[in-house]
Amino acid sequence: MAGEPLTGAAPAGEPLIGVLALQGDVREHTAALTATGARPVPVRTPEELAAVDGLVLPGGESTTISKLARLFGLLEPLRAAVADGLPVYGTCAGMILLADKILDPRAGQETIGGIDMIVRRNAFGRQNESFEAPVPVAGVEGPPVDGVFIRAPWAESTGAGVEVLATYEGRPVAVRQGTALATAFHPELTGDHRVHALFTAMVRARSGGGSR
Fold first, then answer.
1. For residue 39, what are the β-bridge partners?
2. Angstrom distance (rounded) from CA 107 to CA 72
3. Gyration radius (Cα) of the chain, Å
4. Nearest partner of 46 among 15, 23, 69, judged by Cα
5. Mean pLDDT within 82-111
6. Which of 194, 148, 156 is nearest to 172 (CA)?
7. Residues 93-112, mean pLDDT to the nearest whole number
8. Pairwise CA distance, residues 183 & 152, whole Å
9. What pLDDT sits at residue 125?
10. What pLDDT does residue 5 have?
11. Catalytic center residues
12. What is the mean pLDDT of residues 148-159?
């Protein structure tokens, strides 16, 4: 399998994990990361980005987040950091931002990239078609994760280096490539922190166990 070995349990250490705090469900990710033993901090500037061991790209509105990242001078530093191997986890809109390509982009929409995939926005329907479903995720021990899908994307196609960790109705909804992880659903909204624990383990493995 590509990347580091997958596990839902992280070794000791308190990595500093940023949450991109331009728009979206920042508070929920902060709580989930805290529960895994990480030290979450908001990231709004290139200087704050440079200080973290890993980064979460939260759900929200992907076009708005990309435009704000450009406005705050963060888009190019984000691209450089992810390309340099900074561990990053994107949920829903964050999954779109991590895609190398969007199938149906809106005008002015940009991505950070980092995962060799093409995503389809709003693939499962609009807001009023949101739903929950059990999703088995490779590397997450125990029962399936409760997948909360809200205007969720899916991966229309993935490159050879991308590991598909979960599918729903045959569509990839959780993927990993190296130090980049993405889910179409929102584990931060469920109280189940196993996916965040998986990401925290990835950050610890990359940073050597603790914060810089």
1. 16
2. 19
3. 15
4. 69
5. 93
6. 156
7. 91
8. 9
9. 74
10. 38
11. 92, 186, 188
12. 95
pLDDT at 181: 98
Does the global pTM surpass 0.85?
yes
Query: Nearest 5 degrees, angle CA 164-CA 166-CA 167?
Result: 100
Residue type, 185: F
For residues 25 and 34, give the distance between their C-alpha atoms in angstroms, rounded to a whole number: 15
pLDDT given at position 11: 44
Task: Name the pairing type of β-strands 99-102 and 88-91.
Answer: unpaired
Which three-class secondary structure string do you get for the chain?
CCCCCCCCCCCCCCCEEEEECCCCCHHHHHHHHHHCCCEEEEECCHHHHHHCCEEEECCCCHHHHHHHHHHCCCHHHHHHHHHCCCCEEEECHHHHHHEEEECCCCCCCCCCCCEEEEEECCCCCCHHHCEEEEECCCCCCCCCEEEEECCCCEEEEECCCCEEEEEECCEEEEEEECCEEEECCCHHHCCCCHHHHHHHHHHHHHHCCCCC
Token pair for 109:
């929409």
Cβ neighbors of 65 (< 8 A, separation 6 or more) are 20, 22, 23, 24, 57, 93, 97
Question: Does residue 112 contact residue 97 with C-beta atoms inside 8 Å?
Answer: yes
Confirm if 39 and 51 have CB atoms less than 8 A apart.
no
Q: What is the pLDDT of residues 109-150, one digit of tens each?
A: 899 999 999 999 888 877 767 899 999 999 999 999 999 999
What is the residue whose two structure tokens read 């130090």?
A: 179
Q: What is the pLDDT of residues 159-203, one digit of tens each?
A: 999 999 999 999 999 999 999 999 999 999 999 999 999 999 999
